[in-house]
Design a protein that fits this description.
Layout: H1 2-17, E1 19-20, H2 30-36, E2 47-48, E3 51-52, H3 58-75, E4 79-81, H4 87-98, E5 104-108, H5 124-128, E6 130-134, H6 144-154, E7 158-161, H7 172-182, E8 185-189, H8 194-198, E9 211-215, E10 226-230, H9 233-247, H10 253-266, H11 269-291, E11 303-307, H12 308-312, H13 316-324, E12 328-329, E13 331-333, E14 347-351, H14 353-357, H15 362-376, H16 382-393
Parallel strand pairs: 1-12, 5-6, 5-7, 7-8, 8-9
Antiparallel strand pairs: 2-3, 4-10, 9-10, 11-14, 13-14
Helix pairs in contact: 2-10, 3-10, 4-9, 6-7, 11-15, 15-16
This protein binds D-serine (DSN).
Residues 24, 87, 115, 164, 191 line the site of D-serine.
Length: 402
């Protein structure tokens, strides 16, 4: 259908002409995109390599086994399942593998930086499990002492760490030891920081975590999808059974092929350099906002939070909409202890993984922060801001050039 391909071209133009600062997005390599769009989508392969419910799976088996082996190598773990269709499915499968309905889980809430699947009232996770939350200190970092007290008080069956809007290093060793102390499973959802861990810019959740989930499309720079990792033979058996036949049918082998390619790319020395640049760009941009007098969080990762209400007198929702008029894509985000509603918010989340893939340097990160600051504080109008965005974008690689 012609219209669909025209819309793809328009979306490509949008991606090329703008500055993508949504912290959960990235740009994939040509090989990842080729595999994701390949004829592998034609094949049914319910089951696992060597144990399928369909004939004709010998090449598919090799592709899926390659993905599993590369993933195990990348994170130094014993077992991996590469079939979850998304991060949310991975979390659903992981919970169901080690919990019974109604079990207590202890997580960080969505409003403080967690995720919908970490027990949000509108998500399956709060309907299936008895959810309790730990919180953040006033400086925005996890209150580990309060977490321990809460864990001792409620005795959860599972403690979850790994967040969507948390700009600091997570102390997996401490949370892991609290989980041990109270006899809980320790689960990590590393979706946002998987690339940072693979690239050596964030400590690994292993050996502390019992079960780790992730998406593959954020800092890891793979296709849209999910994965589950563990060092426990007992847990992987449960995960594999819960994934298929428990919750999913035929795996998306085209996406699994693309995942394998992205794991291979993340094992190359250039990926370490890329991740170091992501963290440097993000830190630089956050420091630039702070120097300019805006209220931004500090950061040790690929993202930070900008308080647009305090900095510019506008909600996150309005800031997101205004920035879109100058081709800068961000998302409104709840800030710790936010008094606005989730669909309004007091700020935005900014991430530099995607623009760094296009080759943005420290100077580009400074200019990005300055454009946003100058525009939201009305020092420049949309015409001037658009010109500066165009100049900056002209220094970046096209989104389909790698
Ligand atoms: N929706 C993703 C994000 O933007 O962080 C999390 O899955």
């Amino acid at each position: 259908m012609k219209k669909l391909f025209e819309l793809v071209e328009l979306e490509k133009k949008r991606q090329n002409e703008g500055l993508e600062l949504i912290a959960s997005e990235n740009f994939t390599s040509e090989k990842v995109r080729k595999l994701a769009g390949s004829i592998l989508t034609n094949k049914y392969a319910e089951g696992y390599p060597g144990k399928r419910y369909y004939g004709g799976c010998h090449y598919i088996d090799e592709i899926e086994q390659t993905a599993i082996d590369l993933l195990k190598e990348l994170f130094g773990v014993n077992y991996a399942n590469v079939q979850p269709h998304s991060g949310s499915s991975a979390n659903m499968i992981a919970y169901a593998s080690v919990l019974n309905l109604g079990d207590k889980i202890l997580t960080l809430s969505l409003n403080e930086g967690g995720h919908l699947t970490h027990g949000s009232p509108v998500n399956f996770s709060s309907k299936h499990y008895d959810v309790y939350h730990y919180g953040l200190k006033d400086d925005g970092t996890i209150d580990y002492e309060a977490l321990r007290e809460k864990a001792l008080e409620i005795k959860p069956k599972l403690i979850l760490a790994g967040f969507s809007a948390y700009p600091y290093i997570i102390d997996f060793a401490t949370i892991g030891s609290i989980a041990k102390e109270v006899g809980a499973y320790f689960m990590v959802d590393m979706a946002h920081i998987a690339g940072l861990i693979a690239g050596g810019a964030h400590p690994s959740p292993f050996p502390y975590a019992d079960i780790v989930t992730s998406t593959t499309h954020k800092t890891l720079r793979g296709p849209r999808g999910g994965i589950i990792l563990t060092n426990s033979e007992e847990i992987i058996k449960k995960v594999n059974f819960m994934c298929f036949p428990g919750m999913q049918g035929g795996p998306l082998e085209n996406i699994i092929g693309a995942k394998a390619q992205s794991f291979y790319e993340a094992l190359q020395p250039e990926f370490k350099k890329y991740i170091a640049q992501v963290v440097e760009n993000t830190k630089t941009a956050s420091e630039t906002f702070i120097k300019l007098g805006a209220e931004a969080s500090k950061t040790e990762t690929h993202l930070f939070l900008l308080n647009t209400k305090k900095s510019y007198g506008i909600t996150g929702k309005d800031a997101e909409a205004l920035l879109e008029t100058i081709k800068i894509t961000t998302n409104k985000n709840m800030l710790p202890k936010d008094d606005e509603r989730p669909n309004t918010t007091s700020g935005i989340r900014l991430g530099f993984a995607a623009v760094t893939t296009r080759g943005m340097t420290k100077e580009g990160a400074i200019e990005t922060a300055k454009i946003i600051h100058d525009f939201l504080s009305k020092r420049i109008n949309a015409t001037e801001a658009n010109k500066r965005v165009d100049n900056l974008v002209s220094t970046l690689r096209a989104i389909d050039s790698f």
